[in-house]
Amino acid sequence: xxxxxxxxxxxxxxxxxxxxxxxxxxxxxxxxxxxxxxxxxxxxxxxxxxxxxxxxxxxxxxxxxxxxxxxxxxxxxxxxxxxxxxxxxxxxxxxxxxxxxxxxxxxxxxxxxxxxxxxxxxxxxxxxxxxxxxxxxxxxxxxxxxxxxxxxxxxxxxxxxxxxxxxxxxxxxxxxxxxxxxxxxxxxxxxxxxxxxxxxxxxxxxxxxxxxxxxxxxxxxxxxxxxxxxxxxxxxxxxxxxxxxxx
Length: 247
Hints:
By secondary structure, the chain is mainly alpha-helical. It has 11 helices and no strands. The relative contact order is 0.12.
């Protein structure tokens, strides 16, 4: 954490030095002070809070839908070969399709309201999550599963009492990684077809050459991603203490 903080401070100082020399036109790279005052202004007039609340709501719903579908399906694929053989080829096929290409289709299918944002986030995260969860489930030692069968457990009981607890730390890490992708797809959806949100504000600022607002909102997005990642990392350490004790 100290190293990361030092790196951030060094970048901030370099940014301030470069902009203070006058070698770079503020239109292309405004100073940190200009960016900070623009964010303060956006906060005071309520625009920043409005954009934040809309974007956080969209990513929360879209990511939750993708996760709720991907986790059980990934566990089934990782635990039973018949599920893997039936579904993995289709998942592999779709996940290589660029999500950007689905943006105009998603607008035709569901319009430009929030469901379109949910769909883009789902397309960008679900198929990746399925494979990551499947790999985490596959890493459960076969001896554990065989022990459950020896004890007469049903397949459902084996999944609930053996596979899920053993693979949960890996699944959580997969969800933490995919959350970063979800932020990317959210911004993409708001850049192309939206009337509110952080991505929309970046697009509007581009039209009027408000580079300070663009950079400020990009920094806000980075901070949101960092905070959500650290929260999930801390929650994982608390929930899966049994893994640390066994290692």
